[in-house]
Specification:
The chain is mainly beta. Helices cover 10% and strands 31% of the residues. Strand 14 and strand 15 form a beta hairpin. It comes from Kineococcus mangrovi.
């Protein structure tokens, strides 16, 4: 007797009616072989498309035979780049300092060039306790001597601003003095051979000797494209008023620059006498009279 619930009762409980298998026990023990799948007809390949001449790429050239490649001349070896020079300054940036170990320098006649030589006197700036700039009493002067033994002086005291004359031009000219920029003398290098020698000196216009140790005056000689030459006034004695910084001599066309660094207690007249400049001075011995 079948005790399974009726289909209506099963549906009432909310469960689907299970499907009853139609296979018997003999079907499970002796399964029938599956039929072979039907053979599908072979499909023909699609017809080949005709090439479009308008969009077809250009044929690539055939590679050259190996024999031609071997016939090419060998390429030249590439030379390595030159080694970089580190730490070498240009000629216009070089600086030469004249001191006790190297007191002189020779500028050959071929290297004198043209243009102007600048002789610039500078010093350390002095300030007051409130931070204001203090004026200093140091000035640049130059004794000069021509080849015919005519001599004179170039300094702001006495308004000796240019000498000697060469036509309408002056070989030496004194520039304006600035407390920060210093004071300079310009020399015409093209006609510098008219001079036999020059002596550059530092002097004071007041009665009190300047403090050379604190001011540390130094002279810079600058030539266009040839660097600079510098020298300092060092080890000043107490009470010195003037100092001969440098001397320049024309020796067979070459310029010999010498560091003098010689101090004097008196006026510029003592410097002229020490270096053999025969000048006519005023009563104070500070301004030479034109000869």
């Amino acid at each position: 007797m079948d005790r399974r619930p009726d289909a209506a009762v099963h549906n009432f409980l909310g469960h689907p009616v299970p499907r009853r298998s139609t296979r018997t026990l003999a079907d499970h023990l002796n399964p029938s072989p599956r039929p072979a799948p039907a053979a599908t007809p072979a499909t023909a390949p699609p017809p080949a498309r005709r090439p479009d001449r308008r969009s077809a790429p250009a044929p690539r050239p055939a590679p050259a035979p190996a024999a031609r490649a071997e016939a090419r001349p060998p390429s030249r070896p590439v030379s390595p780049p030159p080694a970089a020079v580190v730490g070498q300054a240009r000629a216009s940036e070089r600086r030469t300092v004249l001191d006790a170990e190297r007191p002189s320098l020779t500028v050959p006649a071929a290297g004198r060039g043209s243009g102007s030589l600048r002789f610039t006197l500078q010093w350390e700036q002095q300030v007051t306790s409130t931070g204001l700039h203090r004026s200093s009493d140091v000035h640049l002067g130059c004794f000069w001597e021509t080849r015919d033994r005519h001599c004179g002086a170039l300094q702001s005291l006495g308004e000796l601003l240019a000498a000697p004359g060469f036509g309408a031009r002056q070989v030496l000219r004194l520039g304006a003095r600035h407390e920060q920029a210093g004071e300079e003398v310009l020399a015409d290098a093209a006609h510098l051979d008219l001079l036999r020698r020059m002596v550059f000196y530092v002097y004071a216009t007041g009665p009190v000797a300047p403090d050379y140790a604190a001011l540390a005056p130094h002279l810079t000689i600058a030539r266009r494209g040839a660097g600079t030459v510098q020298m300092w006034a060092q080890d000043p004695p107490a009470g010195a008023r003037t100092c001969a910084l440098a001397s320049i001599h024309d020796v067979a066309g070459d310029l010999v620059v010498r560091r003098e660094n010689e101090f004097f207690e008196g006026t510029t007249r003592e410097v002229a006498l020490a270096y053999g400049f025969d000048l006519d001075w005023n009563a104070e011995g500070t301004v030479p009279r034109p000869s």
